[in-house]
Design brief:
Elements lengths: L8 E5 L4 H12 L3 E6 L2 H14 L4 E6 L5 H14 L5 E4 L14 H29 L3 E5 L12 H21 L5 E7 L5 H7 L3 H6 L13 H12 L10 E4 L7
Parallel strand pairs: 1-2, 1-4, 2-3, 4-5, 5-6, 6-7
Helix pairs in contact: 1-2, 1-8, 3-4, 4-5
This protein binds nicotinamide-adenine-dinucleotide.
Length: 255
Amino acid sequence: MARRLDGRVAVITGGAGGIGAATGRLFCEEGARVVLVDRDAPAMAAVAAEIRAAVPGAALHDLVLDTAEEAAADRIVAEARNAFGPVEVLVNNAGIRAYEPLAEATAETWQRIIAVNLLSHAHLTRAALPDLRACGHGSIVNISSTHAVNPRPGMGQYDATKAAILSMTRSLAFEEAAHGVRVNAVCPGLTLTPFHVRRLGRDHADLAAERVDNCLLRRWADPREIAFPILWLASDEASYVTGATLMADGGQKVL
Ligand SMILES: NC(=O)c1ccc[n+]([C@@H]2O[C@H](COP(=O)([O-])OP(=O)(O)OC[C@H]3O[C@@H](n4cnc5c(N)ncnc54)[C@H](O)[C@@H]3O)[C@@H](O)[C@H]2O)c1
């Protein structure tokens, strides 16, 4: 049976984190040739080893770079071309959080979070667009958050960057439609990634079993449940979908 990304060259940033790693693995399972990028070298090595063990014959290239540095964008595209060929799918997923009320937000945190959560995606997109346009089926999936449209106190900087990602997604979809590149966003709800397990200092199994009150499904998402919507948007199954925001949030808006 044909796999959904057979032979496609995909770049995924934040590939050593929960959602990025799950997406990298799923893309490999679906036949993509995957470049995973992360600034965390030990985590990147561990995730690459896990994917290679889980997906025999995986076409995977792991790359340690800080995507917030503008020069990293050209380097990532060059590495992808070198390893596998021109980029056909780009998943802008790297992200950081800042836990500061806006009244206390410093210029330094603002600059860092904008550099990682927004500008790194803008620079990498610009660098990859010639390849994405040339292939005739280019797809960009930007990872935002439910908090882009549903903010809460204490993380205003993060929420603002995630709202900006949705805006950038729509502008880019507009600009790139004529060039055959689709651009969409996924807004994950609470997703049980190693980041949250560390942050909360609790057991993964405990958290997975816990009742979550902010969504209809009453539980955390597993990272693979976010990777599937990303896969769908990246694939030709979503060939008539662009400029869209897909809420993968267990039904938050209904409550
Ligand atoms: N987990 C959730 O509940 C949740 C909910 C909504 C949105 N998101 C978004 O999904 C994305 C992935 O989240 P996650 O939970 O898997 O997070 P995570 O912290 O586990 O993974 C993020 C990864 O990005 C990497 N990264 C950060 N800055 C980088 C940089 N400058 N250069 C290269 N790599 C960098 C980190 O090292 C990390 O491996 C993020 O954009 C996050 O904002 C997550």
